[in-house]
Amino acid sequence: MNAMSRPSTDVSKELPSRETIDPAVLEQASLWMARLWSDDATDDQRDACLQWRQAAPEHERAWQQLQAIDGRLGTLPSHAARSELFEVSSPLSRRHLVQWGGVALLAGGLGFGLPRTPQWQRQFADYATGIGEMRDVTLSDGTQLHLDTDTAINISFDADQRRIHLVRGGVLITTAKTTDARVFSVLTREGLSYPLGTRFSVQQQAGSTHVAVYEGRVALERRGSDERTTLDAGQQAEMSASRVMPPEPLDPTEIARFQGRLVAESMRVIEVVEVLARYRHGVVRCAPEVANRRVSGVFSLQDTDRALASLADALSLEVVYRTPLWVTVKSRRDDKS
Known about the structure:
It comes from Vreelandella boliviensis LC1. The chain is α+β, with helices and mostly antiparallel strands.
């Protein structure tokens, strides 16, 4: 099952011809992309990749060919879509993706783990959202899902169970009100969440699963353990590979992110920037001298350029756009305090 539709178009006529690009350049582009798709990519690597792309037109053409694998550039928010770096036509079908198999296998064989990258996970998920995108989905049993930015999920419903596999990102779930004898669960890397007539959110983080309960109850069960920790409405908890942390009171601003807003209450600038970075393509950096300054306010996650401008106005900061995809928040030149 794959809920993402594919346009019926001849992609080969719209994308630059890969035969005109030196195979060695394609190889370099695939290695750069595999590095940047990994979760531990550094700013230095992103900067070096940008310099490589700008070094020759053929480098950029090779990058554009591989970038089309993502298949979601048509839904980019305006702040990213206006960049020439992302002007790619239609998404590649799985048939076209297979034609790139040699490049993908090359990158994977060199240890960069291409199938574990965000683009790869989103491409083959049952439901997915790109960076800066949110999506509502209603499942066959009536369960309602709200997918956060950069999220990928797979659905497995059969005669005995209803399971959502959260591959990456976050999802707000409102379970169906109708009676269904099949067990409902959400699978993440760390374990399972079993809701009991509820509304709750699950987020797959780097080394843990975050669960927040707004209505009803949710039982958490780590992989390899039979013990369950139950969260009541108004509670949240972190589940790692080794333990489930004690439940804590729910952060009332948590659900606002699924509504496209970041509610900051005495939040550090670096924390605000890190959240906004999840909702836009490219790199958002924060200068050390402003990282620990604190701000309160409501910022849009659907228009991160406006959010950055609001942050700058609130604290008299400066937002410097090196390119639309490379942004730095820093002190104003006339205010180095």
